[in-house]
Design goal:
Number of domains: 2
Shape: elongated
Distance between the termini: 56 Å
Strand content: 5-15%
CATH class of the largest domain: Alpha Beta
Number of helices: 14
Structural class: alpha+beta
Largest sheet: 4 strands, mixed
Length: 344
């Protein structure tokens, strides 16, 4: 008599398989494209690509991962003793390889997030496959469930491949922090990274020119504000703290507009608090945020990012992959945005 795999265990197996296949497909895209789409060159994924384990027999490692996990997934959907044994053998081998690759990452103290997903999932699939073989379990006899699982597995592979292979790779010389912000952007939106100081006259002029563009093209723009308060401006850091807290409390754009528009002598802690109150922010929460260690660390991190992208003057703006530095007029920024939209 056929002994069916418990329903929850079957769907757990399917879910883990899809997760591993999707991560493998993502890695494969970044291996075959001339420049990575999903991972940064300077991150853990890039580091793993430079190891001797990246191209066994001259073949990208994700090809082996994708093939092995697909074989495990399909065997898990087939009834019978042979399918159970084949699934367990392949899964145990894949699990041992995954443990070895996790060890390689640990020894390098460098971790590739997608690799970790594949490796941990492979270990879980090995355990589930052995459990199936020992329990002599088969997939559900319900054909709809099996066909649904097959369809989900296909989508798990096809979606990242279609997305990654059709997306233009970022330029190899693009600073890593900018590339990371672009990758975070929703599909179809241009990333604008704006490094500014609220007391800087050129930043204030540029914001006046940029604001109409942001309002007009808001459905096409993913705006990232970075705070770079200069020491020469006495209230710049107070304004930067206020902007960070406005952003964390859901009023980032409103606070930025108000801080750029307010007279610079009013960008004191008290003045910034009045601006926050005028925009409906909870004063007690705002005060706590302004004085928090997290806000200070955010501003310091933004400054390090500005230096990492070779910022020399303010404002420094990135419209997609194009850098603009210093005061900018509306025509220049519109042209940069239009060019970035074409590159999507």
């Amino acid at each position: 008599m056929r002994k069916s795999l418990p329903t929850w265990l079957f769907w757990l197996f399917v879910a883990v398989s899809i997760l591993a296949l999707a991560a493998s497909a993502i890695l494969l895209v970044d291996y075959v494209k001339p420049a990575p789409v999903f991972c940064g060159e300077g991150g853990g994924c890039g580091a793993m690509k430079r190891t001797v384990f990246a191209y066994p027999f001259g073949i990208p490692m994700p090809v082996f991962g994708l093939s092995g996990i697909l074989a495990i997934a399909l065997a898990g959907l087939v009834p019978g003793r042979r399918a159970r044994i084949a699934q367990a053998v392949v899964a145990v081998f894949a699990g041992l390889v995954a443990i070895g690759l996790l060890g390689v990452q640990a020894s390098m103290d460098t971790f590739c997030p997608y690799c970790i997903v594949v490796d941990v999932s492979s270990v879980v699939l090995a355990a589930l496959s052995v459990a199936r073989a020992v329990g002599a379990w088969d997939p559900p006899s319900n054909r709809k469930a099996v066909f649904g699982a097959v369809g989900a597995v296909a989508v798990g592979i096809a979606a990242p491949l279609a997305f990654g292979l059709t997306r233009k790779p970022l330029p190899a010389d693009l600073p890593a922090p900018i590339a990371e912000e672009i990758r975070k952007a929703p599909r179809g939106k241009v990333t604008i990274v704006d490094f500014a100081d609220f007391e800087c006259p050129f930043c204030r002029m540029t914001h006046t020119e940029l604001a109409p563009i942001l309002a007009e093209k808001k459905d096409k723009i993913h705006l990232v504000r970075k705070q770079v308060p200069l020491r020469m401006h006495p209230h710049a850091k107070d304004a930067a703290r206020a902007a960070c807290c406005g952003e964390s409390m859901g009023k980032g754009d409103e606070m930025a507009d108000a801080l750029f528009s307010a007279p610079t002598e009013e960008l004191t802690p008290e003045g910034c608090e009045k601006i926050a109150q005028a925009h409906g922010l909870d004063v007690e929460k705002f005060r706590a945020c302004v004085g928090s260690k997290e806000t200070e660390e955010r501003i310091e991190a933004d400054g390090r990012t500005w230096r990492a992208v070779h910022g020399h003057g303010l404002p420094t703006l990135w419209f997609g992959t194009q850098k603009l530095e210093g005061a900018q007029d509306q025509a220049t920024m519109r042209a940069a945005l239009d060019e970035a939209i074409k590159e999507l």
